[in-house]
Model the fold of this input.
Amino acid sequence: MKTKKSSSSKAASLPDRGKAMNGAEILVACLEREGVDVIFAYPGGASMPIHQALTKTKKIRTVLPRHEQGGVFAAEGYARATGKAGVCMATSGPGATNLVTGIADAFMDSIPMVAITGQVPQEMIGRGAFQETDFFGMTLPIVKHSYLVWDINEIPRIVKEAFHIAQSGRPGPVLIDIPKNIQNQTAQPIFPKTVNLRGYSTDQKADDVALHELLGLIKQAKAPMIYCGGGVITGGASAEMLEFAERTQIPVATTLMGIGCFPESHPLSLKWLGMHGTVYANNAVNEADLLLAIGVRFDDRVTGKVEKFCEHGTIVHIDIDNSEINKNKSVRLPILSDLKYALGRLNKMLDQAGAKRASKNFTKFPDWYRQIAKWKAAHPLSFKDTEDAIQPQYVIQLLHKMTKGDAIITTGVGQHQMWAGQFYDFEKPRTFITSAGLGAMGFGYPAAMGVKVAFPNKQVVDIDGDGSFLMNVQELATAHIEGIAAKAIVLNNQHLGMVVQWEDRFHGGNRGHTFLGDPKDLERVYPDYVDICKGFGVTCERVVHKKDLPAAMKRMLDSKEVYVLDVMVPYTEHVLPMIPSGRTYKDIITE
Done:
């Protein structure tokens, strides 16, 4: 029996031999074997053979974006919402270079993605051929790994490795650059079933000694805090995070990337911290005597003046990427581990020690809870509402109420992004989709398309600003033609709102090219999104008065097609609270 089982196991791992086909067809067959169901791809001369091969597959949907950047952001939206690698493709030269911002965005936020680019024929590489760029070299600092395919027979191995690398360990983007002549060559592919990369290990498991030391620190603490981030979501550890917090009864603050990894309605939640995070989250993290940093990278938008961040507290850092530990902030106890494993193991240890789960009536740190309650009472998230003018925060609160918090929200980058994080309460991971580390404007609507493709039966709404939305407005054509019913709410203040806020705070209100309207006709809304959307075959409503918003929002949410709400809001409104760049939580601006 043992021999049979061993033989069966060995046979299962043997590679498959396919029929003879060209390089482009081999690539598509490899994508099918990796479970790819959609690719966002814009054709061109150096990628035409792959597009021809894609027309023959019944397993992969090809979505044609109207700009390569729209395609890469859509692939990111798909990946952020599903946890699977998003796939995008462009031709060589300018097609490829239009992917750079999205690849960098995925790298900064640890998003699994495989970007495929056509390349000029091998004999033309390095000769300045038409539409040639050294895309392999150009993207080296912003990818987890990259390949320039030099042999048709290597395509199956490369694709298998690319998806493994993109999705394992700390996720990230992987590039596959394929010369056109290799796409046209013919070979009989051999498809590997396993990946063996020497020196690449993702099996990081925390040592029990370190975990016991962490639990010992918790026993000694009087004012502990959990500060957790996107690593909890990418590691699939949200359930373990909730259990750990309830067993230890330690309050939780997330990063912007970590929004949704811990339910914000939970009594232990302090929402999120950082430049525009809650006052009470910033106070608690900085005044904690023990800070458990889980799946975070001590980003400057969180820490402010990094040497003053949690200055007097003991810091424990759990992360799967050793390069992040002690990079920005020196810590007392570093723990290198997969987060799901580490938190799961901690929960078992706590259970064995008799620490029961509690969802309310917390008793372990009474003085600390009282102090946090005082901060919450003194500095709640709030805004001054108005009778007729529409405040942006009100729009988001209304959206939360009307969707019952059950939508997947994407955002562009700017004030609207911060308000979305503040005033839409998130209960589940992968429901707040935003460009955090890179802060790439134009991200919101293409990302919403990618999310909607992944979850066609979910309500997907892009909360955007007029400046950010305009950067990839052409993707409305994609959504309309492809039947991707992603919605958009544009908080339109006719300005680059976040830059205006900094001008008001730090430059005496002097405008440095931040007005987006028509200076010759200030009464006119410019650009006119209603007319623009009409040209794309998309319904758009402009809402000016508060009384008209609920009905308009209901029409948008009830629509089975693409729908845009152009909501006029005052440009004078600021995102508060705010910690000025490079300052500390004690310098926070609240009014």
